[in-house]
Design goal:
Blueprint: E1 3-8, H1 19-25, E2 31-37, H2 41-53, E3 57-61, H3 75-83, E4 88-97, H4 105-122, E5 126-131, H5 134-142, E6 149-152, H6 158-166, E7 169-173, H7 183-191, E8 197-199, H8 221-232, H9 236-251
Parallel strand pairs: 1-2, 2-3, 3-4, 4-5, 5-6, 6-7, 7-8
Helix pairs in contact: 2-3, 6-7, 8-9
The structure holds nickel (II) ion.
């Protein structure tokens, strides 16, 4: 097995008890790559440090929309400094979340746009979080043509997925595609061409069936890949290879 988890949060406190043991065990479970995504200045710095000491782990640095209101005044300078470190391969996770609205929407937009400009300046791809914010996100991305990246944990429609693909973005799916009632997500998978599709866990959240409800970890990306393979009508091994190829292409690994 060759499993690449394109979006993880191994620094989440739910891994505090066994993080190092898990990081050492994952290669034995077939995991060949993980993108550890920061959500704040502090977690981005830690993600870069984690990537520096584990060969198969890479990092993304960015301010999550939930954390946008709490970002320090000089966050762009701090994220830029972190992003210049080795094995930091993207700006993320950044975006808009109008489901929880933990930060005011105007603040979310400002922090997103500042970080998109930073990604353009550094010529890095972006890992985007988009929840119930399709219109604003698409409008903002239209202003940043040429930017590359991924819509992570995609929960939108097939039509929205294709609009993002047309703008040059990849679409990444989590364990939600394995859940009962995932019809809309399955339609999005059907619509996205193989060269634009990726798999992730978003661990510790969203454990796929048959692990639903448990703490998630990068090895469980196999269940997401199995479901994607089934929907796309390719073998599991092919799907693993496509995911790796797309992740390495996007993140220049
Ligand atoms: Ni995430």
């Amino acid at each position: 097995m060759r499993l690449f988890d394109t979006h993880a949060h191994l620094l989440d406190r739910r891994f505090d008890g066994d993080r190092q043991a898990l990081i050492e065990a994952l290669p034995g479970l077939g995991v060949v790559g993980v993108i550890e995504c920061g959500t704040s200045v502090d977690s981005s710095r830690k993600a870069a440090a984690l990537a520096a000491r584990a060969g198969y782990i890479y990092a993304a640095a960015g301010i999550h929309p939930h954390d946008a209101a709490e970002a320090p005044g000089d966050y762009i300078q701090q994220i830029e400094a972190i992003a210049s470190r080795q094995k930091v391969v993207a700006i993320g996770e950044i975006g808009l979340d109008y489901h929880y609205d933990f930060s005011p929407r105007d603040v979310q937009k400002k922090v997103l746009e500042d970080q998109l400009a930073l990604a353009e300046k550094l010529k890095l791809p972006v890992a985007l979080h988009m929840r119930e914010a399709t219109q604003d996100m698409l409008a903002i991305l239209q202003e940043h043509k040429g930017l590359r990246g991924v819509l992570h944990c995609f929960s939108g429609s097939a039509e929205t997925a294709l609009q993002c693909v047309d703008m040059g973005f990849c679409i990444s799916f989590t364990g939600t595609v394995t859940f009962d009632g995932a019809r809309k997500t399955i339609e999005a998978v059907q619509a996205v061409p193989l060269q634009s599709i990726m798999a992730e866990t978003d661990c510790p959240y969203l454990a796929p069936e048959p692990k639903r409800g448990e703490r998630n970890d990068p090895a469980n990306v196999r269940y997401v890949l199995e479901k994607l393979a089934l929907i796309k009508g390719v073998s599991f091994d092919e799907m693993c290879g496509i995911n790796i190829q797309n992740a390495k292409g996007l993140y220049a690994i």
